[in-house]
Amino acid sequence: xxxxxxxxxxxxxxxxxxxxxxxxxxxxxxxxxxxxxxxxxxxxxxxxxxxxxxxxxxxxxxxxxxxxxxxxxxxxxxxxxxxxxxxxxxxxxxxxxxxxxxxxxxxxxxxxxxxxxxxxxxxxxxxxxxxxxxxxxxxxxxxxxxxxxxxxxxxxxxxxxxxxxxxxxxxxxxxxxxxxxxxxxxxxxxxxxxxxxxxxxxxxxxxxxxxxxxxxxxxxxxxxxxxxx
Length: 229
Ligand code: GLN
Description:
- Catalyzes the hydrolysis of the gamma-glutamyl amide bond of hercynyl-gamma-L-glutamyl-L-cysteine sulfoxide to produce hercynylcysteine sulfoxide, a step in the biosynthesis pathway of ergothioneine.
- Its EC number is 3.5.1.118.
- By secondary structure, the protein is an alpha+beta fold.
- 17% of the residues lie in helices and 34% in strands.
- The chain binds glutamine.
């Protein structure tokens, strides 16, 4: 995925996070402002959210900007915890809904912005797609997403060319890593947004330095340097 966004806070509509902001993911699908790799994100989109403790997903291999059905329904989808993404497929990766984040193990919703050499990852029979991000998600689920920082540092050490910006949420925690790409954080009175790039020009957006882990819980936000930084 080339641009992703997470929310943890009060229940809000998916539309208010993805479609309504002037530079939200809907606009980032054709005009991202800070993307380092790729020009646009037309190879699919995915929205995941927690319905109570149940993760639910809506994914498509088509561009988000053209999806009138999603735009119509998104204002009615409300959640306290959301992981959404728009995709720019890495060369050679399949373009299909199952290659599109968020991925899930039934507890976590997880998105990957970047690229990883699949040969450096443990073989997994449970990946949804042959896409590098799907194989990486399966590896992270198998390792345990709770230790995301350690996992990303270890995978990064094994694949020096890898870019490993991960975003994951389980309904009560939102975790994100920076490893090769941009990430910003906005603390709102009603919750916290973590996004590949700011969805508006609010001066409250804070850039997360590279090779850090962001941990968001109901009452705090923590930034921790990752090993190898
Ligand atoms: N490598 C992933 C894919 O092909 C993610 C790509 C990206 O972040 N641009 O989907």
